[in-house]
Design goal:
The structure holds two protein chains of two kinds. Chain A is of the alpha/beta class. In chain A, about 30% of the residues lie in helices and about 20% in strands. Chain A has helices at about 30-35, 85-100, 115-125, 150-155, 155-170, 185-195, 240-250, 270-275, 285-290, 295-310, 350-360, 385-390, and strands at about 5-10, 10-15, 15-20, 40-45, 60-65, 70-75, 105-110, 130-135, 175, 200, 205-210, 210-215, 220, 230-235, 260, 280-285, 340, 365, 375, 395-400. By secondary structure, chain B is an alpha/beta fold. Chain B folds into three domains: about 35-130, Orthogonal Bundle (Fumarate Reductase Iron-sulfur Protein, Chain B, domain 2); about 145-240 and about 385-445, FAD/NAD(P)-binding domain (3-Layer(bba) Sandwich), CATH 3.50.50; about 240-375, FAD/NAD(P)-binding domain (3-Layer(bba) Sandwich), CATH 3.50.50. Chain B has 17 helices and 21 strands. Chain B has helices spanning about 15-25, 35-40, 50-55, 60-70, 75-85, 85-95, 100-105, 105-110, 115-130, 150-165, 180-185, 195-200, 220-230, 255-265, 285-300, 320-325, 425-445; strands at about 10, 145-150, 165-170, 210, 215, 220, 230-235, 240, 255, 275, 280, 300-305, 330-335, 335-340, 350-355, 360-370, 375, 380, 390-395, 395, 410. In chain B, strands 4-3-2-7-21 form a five-stranded parallel β-sheet, sandwiched between helices. Chain B has a five-stranded parallel β-sheet with strand order 9-17-11-12-13. The radius of gyration of chain B is 23 Å and the shape is globular. Classes of the chains: A alpha/beta, B alpha/beta. The interface between A and B is medium-sized, with 14 and 15 residues. Chain B: One of its GO terms (molecular function) is oxidoreductase activity. Chain B: It holds the Pfam family Pyr_redox_2. Chain B: It comes from Pseudooceanicola albus. Chain B: This is NAD(P)-binding protein.
């Protein structure tokens, strides 16, 4: 059986599944339950400076969007950092780490963007025996209004500066958690590593309004007739997170640097995808908040089975394997020609491919009187929409034309690899020779 | 000692009142809101959907299901009612397993279709429960139309005509409107007086007057109607019952299944309704199934359906046959009644095995007897009280695609008219289409 033991920044955990800094990791009670359920590590919910703790709203903190059968697809929250006393948290962290030495315990921190503030808290955290810290530069709501969270994460210079302070006043690994509420994720990542951070983790939540109550004419969740934007997470954000992880993994300035992947990870497969793009481990929150801590058991068994099937002995064997295949559009092979093919045996004749193609694409599917659907190769641009809307998995597939075959749509012979950089329509094309 | 299923003869109160009440509660529970949304989500929103093609009234099924999914069952109901004003009853009685649900692509894909019938019921019940009528009448046209028969065809015709601005008088020889919806459907398919509530809701359009106790041969003459109205629609159904042509048919205890079903539907107290200990139903259609199941539910000890051909030829669907079997009804096939024995009242039925020879059904000569203290005839109904002058084809009033009879100004639809299957939903479609044609004829314009 595959060994799921993961070493991230020298921190060993029995599996790559950590709980992200969030409500599930706010207290000793929850974290002990998480470890008993099998989680490999936790990032303790963000601690703030010594003094009166923050307060949370006393109305609803979460909003959601749902799919069929009320499956939770996206969650948004307006909860702030821990609202418990700093020393209570520190004592609990110490006890938990002492009792679970084989699990990773990382402490998330958010204090004002002043050297003194960091200098004050870091030794206290160091004393707990936790394995490292994560700098919360991501929360987009509430704390950002006070110059913390994403307000720091959106300014690369601040990231670099704080990372430097942390490396100065703390001896263990420093992870910088990035906000996705920024136009180009590579800049804050570069700043974090330039400041000496050991790793970045991403993504934090996305600024969002999940829904509007049309009776009250107010965004949800409603707090006495008002709503505030919150941080969006859950399965719906996974594609955004994957792209950001890949951007950092393939940026020449940060390629190969440690990344902890976060964003909508719900199953072992999601986790494997993040890791394939370069994440050394993953952090999970919404899946646990939706289904409870037990979900990790499926993640462990699923990842383990898949690794066995693929012959991977440890997670290091496949981490980052897909990153070199993330490419700029201009390098995609324009001579890769495919045509949709419909398996008539599998077809249930719903006609969704026809409606999609006829109404919104290239009129490349024919429908007969008796509802037989067939692809018109001379019109098919291989867009894949029919594959995506077909309710039967595997019914419509894409067949690749061999080199030398004639594409019935263009009348041209399929040639060898050639991309936009050398295409005659490209004003900046370089000669192919 | 009180009466039990084993008490000989035809007896009331074979089962305790609470058992009867349980037996006759709704066959299918209505969907709750969440159940409906989950069921609706299974719909693929097919292009040119096969379910819609399979529906005799061409309801836009994918659209109404999507309207349910997005939390607007009232809009879904309007989509249904715009094609089928009796969509509420059709949701209860349609053999969906032979129509929309058989055509559903998920039936092909996984043998489990979208629950179109139950979803239709969810949508229509939502609107009918509010007593909201979703349509308004056009400006009065000054035209008057007589509709004879307040069954599904007549009501659908009347509603569409009223909507177009015509004045409609609907006559029915029974004491209540509704036709087979009121008198001809198994009680467990339409509970809580739904047929009557549906009629009252339908009349919410306005412009329709119902006159009960009047029909052709019961105070009305076609010629007189033609004189006092601009058009006449006949939705008179099939008033007669085919005879068994078996020896002893006149004995006490030999009854029409149709009357039994009607009596049961109207019975204020099911315990007062007598039923035999050994019941035999002759026939293979829905009427036979309804009579047989309800006999069992009333407490008959043994109920047998005797059908002259194989199960595959039965008019009742596989679902209905299974339902009967699940209620303890025995279905005998390839047998036909020869004689009814008994001293005054029937005590035994003598059946002969049949075989098909060169496409013709013949008795094999081998007979057997079953105890029978009550025998229901459910071997088809016949057209009665047809005014002279109307052309008849195959035992029904001959009509065109749009319901025109051979007599100008007279339309017909539903079970009494040629073409289509004898289903509620078909009758609705025919009544509706005839109304459109009547409107065109009266107004001299299309549409």
């Amino acid at each position: 059986m595959a060994d799921l033991t993961t070493e991230f920044l020298g921190i060993r955990s029995p599996n790559p599944f950590w709980l992200a800094s969030a409500p599930p990791t706010d207290k000793e009670y929850n974290v002990r339950r998480a470890f008993e359920a099998g989680w490999g590590g936790v990032v303790w919910k963000t601690l703030g400076s010594e003094g009166p703790p923050v307060v949370n709203v006393n109305g609803p903190r979460y909003g959601a969007i749902w799919g069929a059968d009320r499956r939770l697809l996206g969650l948004n929250n307006i909860e702030l950092i821990t609202d418990r006393d700093l020393y209570t948290n520190l004592e609990e962290i110490t006890r938990v780490k002492r009792d679970y030495p084989d699990r990773a315990v990382i402490v998330s921190i958010m204090v004002p963007c002043e050297e003194e503030a960091w200098k004050a808290i870091l030794p206290l955290v160091e004393e707990t025996g936790a394995d490292g810290i994560e700098l919360n530069f991501g929360c987009p709501h509430g704390m950002a209004e006070r110059g913390m969270g994403s307000a720091v994460g959106q300014v690369p210079e601040y990231i670099r500066m704080v990372a430097q302070w942390c490396k100065m006043y703390y001896s263990k690994p420093v992870i910088v958690k990035l906000t996705p509420n920024i136009t180009d994720i590579r800049y804050p990542a570069r700043a974090a590593f330039a400041g000496g951070a050991d790793a970045v983790s991403l993504i934090n939540t996305i600024n969002s309004i999940t829904s509007v109550n049309l009776d009250a004419m107010c965004p949800e969740p409603m707090i006495d007739g008002k709503g505030s934007h919150g941080g969006y997470c859950g399965p719906a954000v996974k594609p955004i997170a994957l792209n950001m992880v890949a951007e950092i993994a393939r940026d020449p300035e940060t390629a190969g640097k440690p990344i902890s992947g976060i964003g909508g990870i719900t199953t072992w497969r999601d986790a494997a995808e993040f890791m394939a793009l370069g994440a050394g481990n993953v952090q999970v929150c919404t899946a646990a908040m939706t289904y409870g801590f037990k979900v990790v058991q499926e993640m462990i068994s699923g990842l383990s089975q898949w690794m066995d099937e693929k012959g991977y002995e440890s997670t290091a064997d496949f981490i980052g394997m897909a990153a070199p295949r993330v490419s700029d559009w201009q390098h995609l092979n324009l001579n890769y020609v495919t045509k949709a093919e419909i398996d008539q045996e599998a077809c249930i004749k719903c006609g969704r491919c026809y409606a999609a193609c006829e109404d919104t694409s290239h009129q490349a599917i024919d429908m007969s009187e008796d509802r037989v659907f067939s692809v018109k190769d001379e019109d098919c641009v291989a867009c894949n929409l029919c594959v995506n809307v077909c309710p039967v998995e595997g019914c419509i597939t894409m067949r690749q034309l061999e080199e030398g075959e004639v594409d019935p749509r263009t009348g041209k012979v399929v040639g060898p690899y050639a991309n936009w950089t050398t295409h005659p329509n490209n004003p900046g094309a370089v000669a192919a020779e | 000692m009180s009466t039990t299923p084993m008490t000989p003869g035809i007896q009331p109160a074979r089962l305790p009142g609470e058992t009867l009440a349980r037996n006759f509660c709704a066959l299918h529970a209505p969907l709750e809101r969440h159940e409906a949304q989950v069921a609706a989500d299974r719909c693929y929103f097919c292009h040119d959907a096969p379910c819609m093609t399979a529906c005799p009234t061409s309801i836009d099924i994918p659209l109404f299901i999507r309207q349910i999914m997005t939390g607007t069952p009232e809009a879904a109901a309007k989509t249904i009612f715009s094609q089928n004003i009796l969509g509420g009853m059709c949701a209860r009685v349609c053999p969906t397993e032979q129509l929309c649900e058989e055509a559903c692509v998920r039936e092909a894909a996984e043998g489990r279709p979208v629950e179109i019938g139950r979803l239709q019921r969810y949508a229509t019940d939502t609107l009918v429960a509010r007593n909201a009528h979703p349509f308004t009448r056009a400006e009065p046209t000054g035209k008057r139309v007589a509709v004879v028969g307040a069954g599904p065809a007549g009501l659908a015709c009347a509603h569409r005509l009223a909507m177009k601005g015509h004045e409609v008088v609907v006559y029915d020889c029974k004491a209540k409107a509704g036709g087979l919806n009121e008198f001809g459907i198994a009680a467990y398919k339409s509970t809580d007086d739904f047929a009557a509530r549906e009629v009252a809701w339908l009349l919410g359009i306005g412009g329709i007057t119902i006159e009960t106790g009047k029909g052709l041969g019961a105070g009305l003459e076609l010629e007189a109607l033609q004189e006092s109205f601009d058009a006449v629609f006949l939705g008179i159904g099939l008033g007669g019952v085919n005879a068994l042509r078996a020896v002893g048919e006149g004995k006490a205890g030999v009854e029409d299944a149709v009357s039994f079903i009607a009596e049961l539907r109207q019975a204020p107290d099911l315990a007062a309704l007598p039923v035999g200990r050994n019941v035999v139903v002759i026939g293979g259609g829905m009427t036979a199934i309804d009579a047989a199941i309800q006999s069992r539910l009333l407490g008959a000890e043994h109920v047998t359906i005797a059908y002259r051909r194989g199960t595959e030829r039965m008019g009742a669907s596989g679902f209905e046959q299974d339902l009967a079997a699940s209620k303890g009804v025995r279905i005998l096939t390839n047998v036909m009644p020869m004689a009814l024995h008994g001293n005054g009242a029937v005590a035994e039925i003598e059946l002969e095995y049949t075989a098909e020879v060169d496409g013709r059904l013949r008795g094999t000569g081998e007979t057997f007897r079953l105890p029978a203290d009550q025998v229901f005839k459910a071997i088809g109904q016949t057209l009665t009280d047809v005014p002279g002058g109307l052309e008849i084809a195959g035992g029904k009033i001959a009509v065109s695609e749009t319901g025109r009879t051979s007599v100008p100004g007279v339309w017909a639809g539903g079970d009494c008219a040629s073409g289509g299957e004898d289903l509620t939903v078909t009758a609705v479609a025919e009544g509706r289409d005839a109304a459109e044609d009547i409107h065109t004829a009266l107004m001299g314009v299309a549409g």
